[in-house]
Amino acid sequence: MGITDPTRPGGRPNPLAKLEVERTPWLQQAEASDVVVSSRVRLARNLAGFRFVNRAEHDDRTAVLELLRDRLDRAELTPGVPAQWLDIHTLDRLDRDLLVERHLISPQHARGMNSGSARTDPRAVVVSLPDEGVSVMVNEEDHLRLQSLRPGLALERALTDVDSVDDGIEQSVDYAYSARFGYLTACPTNVGTGIRFSVMLHLPALRMLGEVEKVKRAAGDMSLAVRGFWGEGSEAEGDFYQLSNQTTLGRTERVMLDGLQRTIVPRVIDFERRARERLLSQRRLLLEDTVYRSLGILQQARRMTTGEAMQRLSELRLGGTLGLIRTPLLETVSQLLMLIHPAHLQRVTGRSLAQDERRAERASILRARLADVSVAP
Amino acid sequence: MGITDPTRPGGRPNPLAKLEVERTPWLQQAEASDVVVSSRVRLARNLAGFRFVNRAEHDDRTAVLELLRDRLDRAELTPGVPAQWLDIHTLDRLDRDLLVERHLISPQHARGMNSGSARTDPRAVVVSLPDEGVSVMVNEEDHLRLQSLRPGLALERALTDVDSVDDGIEQSVDYAYSARFGYLTACPTNVGTGIRFSVMLHLPALRMLGEVEKVKRAAGDMSLAVRGFWGEGSEAEGDFYQLSNQTTLGRTERVMLDGLQRTIVPRVIDFERRARERLLSQRRLLLEDTVYRSLGILQQARRMTTGEAMQRLSELRLGGTLGLIRTPLLETVSQLLMLIHPAHLQRVTGRSLAQDERRAERASILRARLADVSVAP
Question: How far A288 CA sits from the closest chain B CA (Å)?
Fold first, then answer.
C-alpha cells in the first residue's frame, strides 16, 4: 500500500517519510519518568488584522495559511533543523491519524474544525523531523498553536524551547495583542499569556487503590484540569492522565510554571510513588497478580484492542518501575505505547489494515517485542 | 494442621488417608473423553419396613444406618477391594468437602439433608479406596444411593458395575419394591428402576459459539436435564455440563441406556466436535486468542478464584484436544480440575487455608504444574 514508501502511488513524495515511528522522542526516559511521561507547553497566538479562525470564511483562512506558509516554511523550530510544512487538508487519513497519535496535531485539527471537511479546511502543521520537539499548528482553534513536547518532567525546558520559537515567529508576523488583556485568542480561557502547561502522568497505583478521584478533586480545587491520553474530551487510557492549567488570564507564565513544576506535579508524583510503595508492602499479591497477568496476556493474546493494550502496557510499565519485571523494559514499553495505535500499526506493517486485522497485528507485535520479558528473579 | 497425616490430633486415624487426591480415576482419558469427561449411573433404593429418610425420625435413620453398616461394612464394591464405611456426621468439614469435590457424595449429603445439622444427622458413604469406581450413600434422599462413576463415555460399564453391587446388597437386605411400580423411592421421579444415567460433557466450543442453549432445549424436549458441574441446582462451571434422564417410571433401564449411549450423547459429541472444527477453520483467531490467553494467565496469575480456574482450564483443555498446545497436557489438566477446589487445595498443601490464601495457593499450583506447557509449533 506504500505507507512506508518514500514515494506514494503516482510518484508523489511521502510527506511523512522522515517520521521515525520506531522512536518517539517525548516517550524516552527522563527526569521522574516513572510517573511523568512527558511535559508539554502550548502557546495560542493569532495574527493581527485577520478574523479568528472560528469567525473566518474559507478565503480568510486560506489567506492566513498562505501568509504563515511564507513566513514559517523551513523555520528552524529545532535549531539547525529546517522544519517541514505539512498541509493537513492534503494528507491521507492515515497520515493525519499518525500525526494525532504522535500528539503533533489535535484530533480536532485532523478532522478539520471549521468547514467540516477534512480535505478542504485550509490548515497545516509545521514540525522539525525527526526531532518533533516543537511543532506549530496553523488554523486550529487559533491561527497558531505552538507546542513543545518533552519526555519526563521538563516544563522549564519545554517553555524555553517554545518561547524561542515564539520570539522567532513574532519577528516576522504581527500577533493580535492587547495591552490590557495580553495575547488575544479565540477562546477566552486562553486570553493573556495564551499558555497552557500540561504533564502526562502515569498513575496506575493510584487507580488500583481507587485514589485517582482524590487527585482529580485536588486538581479541580486548584483550577487544574485532568484529561485523558488524547487531551480535551478524551478518557483516561492505560492509567495515563493529562494534568493542565485551565485558565491563563491574569497570571504570569512564571507563577503558573513554578506552581506546577515545583509544587503540584511533585506532590502528585509523591502521591503515586507512595501508592506504589503501599502496593509493594501491603498489597503485593494484588500488585504481582495484576502485573504478571498483563505480562502473560501480552505474551499470549492473538488479538487485542487498543484500549486493552494500553491497559496491559500500563500495568507492565508499573511492574518495570517497581522491579517486578526483568529490565530493560521501559524503553520497549514506551515505544509500544505508540506502536499499538492504528495508524502506527499500519505504518509499521506497511499496509492498510481493517479493524480485525489491526487487532491481530497489534497482538502479534506485542508478542514479538515482549517475548524476552520475564518475571524478575 | 494434619490434613494429610495418617493420624489426626488425638491419635484418631485419618478416615480419608487412602484417598489419592493426586489422581482421580473418573477423570482419566477414556473413550470420547475429548467431549465426555465421565459417565455415571446412580440407583435409588430403600429398605422395606423403614420410613423414607425424609419422613423418618432420628432414631429411624440411626436404625437404618446400623442395619446397613452391619451389611455393607467392608462390602466389595470393587471386586477384591474391601470398601470403607465413612460416617459422614463424624467427619470434619474439610473431609466432607473433599468427598463432595470428588463427587463421592452430594453437597446435600455433606450438609445433612434432614436434621439440619451436619454433625448429628446419621448418614454415611461406603466407598472402595483408592478405586472410587462405585460408592453408596446411606441416608441421603433414599436409604441407599448407589453410584458408579467412570471416565469417558462408559454408561454400559458403569451400569454393569452398579448392578453387580446392587445384586450383592439385595442378597442381604430387603428392598422396598412394588410389583406394579417397581422400586419405591422418596421422590416420585425416581420410582420404577430408580436409575439415573448421566454424563459430564465438556462443551467449550458450543459455549464460545453461543450454541449451548440449543443443546439445552433439545435435551429438554427429550425429558433430559442439563445441570452444572456439581449436579442438581448447580451452574455450569468451566463449560462442564451434566446431561441426565429426568424420570424413570415406565421405561426400562435398557431403553434409557440405549437412547443415551447410542443416540443422544453421540449426537451431542458430534455437535461439539463440529463446533470445534468450525472454530479451527472459520474462527481460528478467536480460538487461539481464547486458548493462549488462558495459558498466559494460568502461567502468570498470582491469585485465582475456583470459577476462573475452571474456565481457564476448560479453555486449555479445548486447546489440548485441538492440538494448539504441546501435549501431553490432558492428564495434567484433568487432575488440576480437581486440585483447584478448596478442600483438595488444603489437603495437597497440608494446611487449613483462608479464602485469600486458597486463591494464592491455587494460582501457585497452576503455575507450577503448567510451567512447561507451551504453544504447539
Answer: 6
Mark yes or no for CB contact B299/A296 under 8 Å: yes
Residue A140 lies in a domain: yes
Q: Is residue A91 part of a domain?
A: yes
User: How far from the centroid of its chain's Cα atoms is residue A112's Cα?
Assistant: 18
Tell me whether residue B82 is in a domain. Answer: yes
Is B370 part of the contact surface with chain A (CB cutoff 8 Å)?
A: no
Q: What does the pLDDT look like over B242-294, one tens digit per residue?
A: 999 876 666 788 888 988 998 999 999 999 999 999 999 999 999 999 999 99
Residues in chain B with pLDDT values less than 70? 1-7, 9-10, 114-116, 231-234, 247-250, 327
Task: Say if residue B247 is in the same domain as residue B301.
Answer: no
Quickly count: other Cβ atoms within 10 Å of residue B199's Cβ. Answer: 26
Domain assignment of residue B330, given as a range: 283-369
Asked if B289 and A303 come within 8 Å (Cβ–Cβ), the reply is yes
Tell me if B300 and A296 make a contact (CB, 8 A cut-off): yes
Domain boundary residue among B227, B243, B275?
B275
Q: Is residue B259 domain-shared with residue B189, that is, in the same domain?
A: yes
Cβ contacts (< 8 Å) between B302 and chain A: which residues?
285, 288-289, 292-293
Chain B contacts in chain A segment 266-325 (CB below 8 A): 285-286, 288-289, 292-293, 295-303
In this prediction the pTM is 0.91
Residues 6+ apart with CB under 8 A from B305: B359, B362
Q: Are residues A210 and A357 in the same domain?
A: no
> Mean pLDDT across chain B, nearest whole number?
90
A297 contacts in chain B (CB < 8 Å)? 293, 296-297
pLDDT digits (tens, 9 = 90+) for B327-336: 678 889 999 9
- Is residue B8 in some structural domain? no
Q: Measured between CA atoms, how close is B278 to chain A, in angstroms?
A: 18
Q: Mind telling me how many Å the CA of A269 is from chain B's nearest CA?
A: 28
Per the CB < 8 Å rule, is B297 touching A301?
no
ipTM of the complex: 0.89
Query: Is the Cβ of A363 closer than 8 Å to some Cβ of chain B?
Result: yes
Query: Could you tell me if B242 and B295 lie in one domain?
Result: no
Whole-angstrom Cα distance, residue B330 to residue B311? 15
